[in-house]
Protein backbone atom coordinates (compact mmCIF):
# COMPACT_ATOMS: atom_id res chain seq x y z
CA UNK A 1 0.00 0.00 0.00
CA UNK A 2 2.80 2.34 0.90
CA UNK A 3 4.40 1.81 -2.52
CA UNK A 4 1.23 2.97 -4.31
CA UNK A 5 1.13 6.26 -2.43
CA UNK A 6 4.85 6.90 -2.72
CA UNK A 7 4.60 6.21 -6.47
CA UNK A 8 1.89 8.86 -6.85
CA UNK A 9 3.96 11.38 -4.94
CA UNK A 10 6.99 10.58 -7.12
CA UNK A 11 4.95 10.82 -10.35
CA UNK A 12 3.29 14.14 -9.55
CA UNK A 13 5.73 15.99 -7.27
CA UNK A 14 9.41 16.59 -6.65
CA UNK A 15 9.08 16.15 -2.89
CA UNK A 16 12.13 14.88 -1.05
CA UNK A 17 12.14 11.35 0.33
CA UNK A 18 11.79 12.77 3.86
CA UNK A 19 8.77 14.88 2.85
CA UNK A 20 7.12 11.89 1.16
CA UNK A 21 7.72 9.79 4.28
CA UNK A 22 6.28 12.53 6.55
CA UNK A 23 3.18 12.82 4.37
CA UNK A 24 2.69 9.06 4.24
CA UNK A 25 3.03 8.76 8.02
CA UNK A 26 0.44 11.50 8.56
CA UNK A 27 -2.20 9.86 6.33
CA UNK A 28 -5.26 8.17 7.78
CA UNK A 29 -5.64 4.71 6.26
CA UNK A 30 -8.72 2.76 7.31
CA UNK A 31 -10.17 -0.66 6.56
CA UNK A 32 -13.87 -1.05 5.78
CA UNK A 33 -15.87 -4.25 5.49
CA UNK A 34 -18.02 -5.15 2.52
CA UNK A 35 -21.41 -3.43 2.83
CA UNK A 36 -20.11 -0.47 4.87
CA UNK A 37 -21.60 2.86 3.80
CA UNK A 38 -19.17 5.75 3.55
CA UNK A 39 -22.04 8.14 2.76
CA UNK A 40 -25.79 7.71 2.41
CA UNK A 41 -28.09 9.58 0.08
CA UNK A 42 -30.10 12.13 2.04
CA UNK A 43 -27.51 12.51 4.81
CA UNK A 44 -25.62 15.73 5.22
CA UNK A 45 -22.60 15.67 2.94
CA UNK A 46 -19.41 14.70 4.69
CA UNK A 47 -16.21 16.67 4.38
CA UNK A 48 -14.38 13.49 3.45
CA UNK A 49 -12.61 12.22 0.39
CA UNK A 50 -11.17 8.78 -0.20
CA UNK A 51 -8.46 7.12 -2.25
CA UNK A 52 -8.86 3.40 -2.88
CA UNK A 53 -5.79 1.35 -2.07
CA UNK A 54 -7.63 -1.97 -2.17
CA UNK A 55 -11.25 -2.91 -2.87
CA UNK A 56 -14.23 -1.50 -4.71
CA UNK A 57 -16.67 1.26 -3.73
CA UNK A 58 -19.98 1.79 -5.54
CA UNK A 59 -21.63 5.18 -6.02
CA UNK A 60 -25.39 5.01 -6.52
CA UNK A 61 -28.62 6.89 -5.93
CA UNK A 62 -32.28 6.00 -5.53
CA UNK A 63 -34.34 7.61 -8.30
CA UNK A 64 -37.89 9.04 -8.07
CA UNK A 65 -39.34 5.56 -8.70
CA UNK A 66 -37.36 4.01 -5.84
CA UNK A 67 -34.92 2.23 -8.17
CA UNK A 68 -31.19 2.01 -7.41
CA UNK A 69 -29.07 3.55 -10.16
CA UNK A 70 -25.34 2.83 -10.09
CA UNK A 71 -23.38 5.82 -11.35
CA UNK A 72 -19.78 4.71 -10.73
CA UNK A 73 -17.40 2.16 -9.27
CA UNK A 74 -14.11 3.20 -7.69
CA UNK A 75 -11.33 0.60 -7.55
CA UNK A 76 -7.62 0.49 -6.77
CA UNK A 77 -5.71 3.72 -7.31
CA UNK A 78 -8.83 5.81 -7.87
CA UNK A 79 -9.86 8.87 -5.91
CA UNK A 80 -13.41 9.27 -4.66
CA UNK A 81 -13.85 13.04 -4.91
CA UNK A 82 -14.63 15.22 -1.95
CA UNK A 83 -17.76 17.34 -1.91
CA UNK A 84 -16.50 20.85 -2.42
CA UNK A 85 -16.91 23.50 0.20
CA UNK A 86 -19.85 25.14 -1.57
CA UNK A 87 -22.00 22.05 -1.00
CA UNK A 88 -20.99 21.29 2.58
CA UNK A 89 -24.08 21.23 4.73
CA UNK A 90 -26.25 20.10 1.80
CA UNK A 91 -27.68 16.61 1.75
CA UNK A 92 -25.94 14.06 -0.44
CA UNK A 93 -27.61 13.15 -3.71
CA UNK A 94 -25.92 9.73 -3.75
CA UNK A 95 -24.59 6.93 -1.55
CA UNK A 96 -21.14 5.37 -1.38
CA UNK A 97 -20.92 1.74 -0.22
CA UNK A 98 -18.08 -0.80 -0.14
CA UNK A 99 -18.76 -3.62 -2.60
CA UNK A 100 -15.76 -5.51 -1.21
CA UNK A 101 -13.62 -5.23 1.89
CA UNK A 102 -11.63 -2.03 1.31
CA UNK A 103 -8.51 -0.22 2.43
CA UNK A 104 -8.89 3.51 1.86
CA UNK A 105 -6.91 6.65 2.47
CA UNK A 106 -9.33 8.99 4.23
CA UNK A 107 -8.96 12.74 3.95
CA UNK A 108 -10.94 15.66 5.29
CA UNK A 109 -11.06 19.35 4.45
CA UNK A 110 -9.30 20.51 7.63
CA UNK A 111 -6.31 18.17 7.43
CA UNK A 112 -6.11 18.67 3.67
CA UNK A 113 -5.69 22.45 4.08
CA UNK A 114 -3.01 21.94 6.74
CA UNK A 115 -1.13 19.51 4.49
CA UNK A 116 -1.39 21.86 1.49
CA UNK A 117 0.05 24.71 3.55
CA UNK A 118 2.95 22.57 4.75
CA UNK A 119 3.54 20.83 1.39
CA UNK A 120 2.32 23.06 -1.51
CA UNK A 121 3.31 20.41 -4.07
CA UNK A 122 0.74 18.11 -2.53
CA UNK A 123 -2.04 20.46 -3.64
CA UNK A 124 -0.62 20.38 -7.17
CA UNK A 125 -0.53 16.58 -7.06
CA UNK A 126 -4.17 16.37 -5.94
CA UNK A 127 -5.21 18.88 -8.62
CA UNK A 128 -3.43 16.87 -11.33
CA UNK A 129 -5.03 13.64 -10.11
CA UNK A 130 -8.47 15.29 -10.11
CA UNK A 131 -7.90 16.67 -13.62
CA UNK A 132 -7.10 13.14 -14.83
CA UNK A 133 -10.17 11.83 -12.98
CA UNK A 134 -12.42 14.52 -14.48
CA UNK A 135 -11.06 13.80 -17.97
CA UNK A 136 -11.81 10.10 -17.54
CA UNK A 137 -15.34 10.83 -16.30
CA UNK A 138 -16.01 13.19 -19.23
CA UNK A 139 -14.75 10.56 -21.68
CA UNK A 140 -16.89 7.85 -20.05
CA UNK A 141 -19.97 10.07 -20.11
CA UNK A 142 -19.48 11.03 -23.76
CA UNK A 143 -18.93 7.41 -24.70
CA UNK A 144 -21.94 6.31 -22.66
CA UNK A 145 -24.47 8.64 -24.29
CA UNK A 146 -23.18 7.85 -27.79
CA UNK A 147 -23.11 4.07 -27.52
CA UNK A 148 -25.46 1.12 -27.44
CA UNK A 149 -25.70 -1.09 -24.35
CA UNK A 150 -23.61 -3.74 -26.13
CA UNK A 151 -20.91 -1.17 -26.93
CA UNK A 152 -20.94 -0.04 -23.27
CA UNK A 153 -20.38 -3.61 -22.13
CA UNK A 154 -17.56 -4.06 -24.67
CA UNK A 155 -16.00 -0.86 -23.31
CA UNK A 156 -16.13 -2.27 -19.76
CA UNK A 157 -14.45 -5.46 -20.97
CA UNK A 158 -11.67 -3.40 -22.58
CA UNK A 159 -11.14 -0.71 -19.95
CA UNK A 160 -12.28 -2.19 -16.62
CA UNK A 161 -12.58 -5.97 -17.09
CA UNK A 162 -12.14 -6.65 -13.36
CA UNK A 163 -15.59 -5.14 -12.69
CA UNK A 164 -17.31 -8.05 -14.46
CA UNK A 165 -16.13 -10.48 -11.78
CA UNK A 166 -16.01 -8.12 -8.81
CA UNK A 167 -19.45 -6.53 -8.69
CA UNK A 168 -22.91 -8.12 -8.65
CA UNK A 169 -24.36 -8.36 -12.14
CA UNK A 170 -27.49 -6.35 -11.29
CA UNK A 171 -25.23 -3.46 -10.20
CA UNK A 172 -23.13 -3.75 -13.37
CA UNK A 173 -26.34 -3.77 -15.43
CA UNK A 174 -27.54 -0.62 -13.67
CA UNK A 175 -24.16 1.04 -14.35
CA UNK A 176 -24.54 0.16 -18.04
CA UNK A 177 -28.12 1.46 -18.12
CA UNK A 178 -29.75 -1.91 -18.82
CA UNK A 179 -31.73 -4.53 -16.94
CA UNK A 180 -29.96 -7.63 -15.60
CA UNK A 181 -31.86 -9.68 -18.19
CA UNK A 182 -30.60 -7.46 -21.02
CA UNK A 183 -27.05 -7.80 -19.72
CA UNK A 184 -27.42 -11.60 -19.78
CA UNK A 185 -28.60 -11.44 -23.40
CA UNK A 186 -25.68 -9.16 -24.35
CA UNK A 187 -23.23 -11.61 -22.77
CA UNK A 188 -24.79 -14.56 -24.62
CA UNK A 189 -24.62 -12.73 -27.97
CA UNK A 190 -20.98 -11.87 -27.39
CA UNK A 191 -20.11 -15.52 -26.67
CA UNK A 192 -21.33 -16.58 -30.13
UniProtKB/TrEMBL annotation:
The superkingdom listed in its UniProt entry is: Bacteria
- SUPFAM superfamilies membership: cAMP-binding domain-like (SSF51206)
Which InterPro entries does this one have?
cNMP-bd_dom (IPR000595), cNMP-bd_dom_sf (IPR018490), RmlC-like_jellyroll (IPR014710)
Q: Which UniProt keywords apply?
A: Activator
Using the record's annotation, list all stretches that form the Cyclic nucleotide-binding domain: 11-43
Extract the Gene3D superfamilies matched here. Answer: Jelly Rolls
What's the protein name? Crp/Fnr family transcriptional regulator
Amino acid sequence: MEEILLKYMADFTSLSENEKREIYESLQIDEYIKGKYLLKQGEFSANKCYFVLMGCVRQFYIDELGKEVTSNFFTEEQAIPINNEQTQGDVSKYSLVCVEDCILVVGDVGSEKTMFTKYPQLETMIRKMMEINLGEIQEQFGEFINSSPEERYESILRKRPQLVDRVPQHQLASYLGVTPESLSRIKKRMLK
